Amino acid sequence: MIIFLYGADDYRREERKQFFIREYRKKHSVLGIARFDFSRVESSGRDEESEFEKFKTFIGSRSMFDAFKLVILENVFFAKNEELKKMLKELTAVGKETTVLVSEPKIPESSFSFLVKPPVIAEEFKELDGYEWELFVRKEAKRRGVPLAPSAFRFLADAYKGDGWRLVTELEKMSFLEKVIKLMRIPERQ
């Protein structure tokens, strides 16, 4: 089974990826989890073939502790290996013992277009705007117990529009305060 998470909203995509990893850990051994990042191959001095070989070995091996595996693939669109594309296509038909979680910031090129078609579970994370963004800001503030006055809410929603990571970082800092967050005007100097 393949789960494909894609879209420009890195924060929500990462949150969803972490959700799948947590759910796997609740039921299975952490020995069955492996991560492969094809963007770091050249910069780390490794070659793509060795990363692919590790991936292939992990997929093909059997554990005596747990039959289930979770493979996290990142930046697969960087990979030039045609065998990787072929192997991913084959994994769409594999049973539920092996789950491949692919996370990418953009929709795939044509050679990976099978990732957005059934039986692959594909979820898109577009950047939020307007009412959806405001709901997101309210939800994240509530989740962290940050009471926002309307003016502070409006400021945060406008200042961090479309940037979930920065918004959540600010909300995390504010969560340590024990007061309602208000927007205050600083008087101008004469």
**Structural class computed from helices and strand pairing:** alpha/beta
Shape: elongated
Summarize the amount of helix as a percent range.
Answer: 40-55%
Which regions are unreliable across 5 or more consecutive residues at pLDDT < 50? none
Percent strand equals 5-15%
Please tally the helical runs, counting DSSP H or I stretches of 4 or more residues. 6
Q: What does the model show?
A:
With about 190 residues, the protein is of the alpha/beta class. The protein is about 40% helix and about 15% strand. It is built from 6 helices and 5 strands, in the order βαβαβαββααα. The chain has a 5-stranded parallel sheet with strand order 2-3-4-1-5, with helices on both faces. It starts with a strand and ends in a 16-residue tail after the last helix.
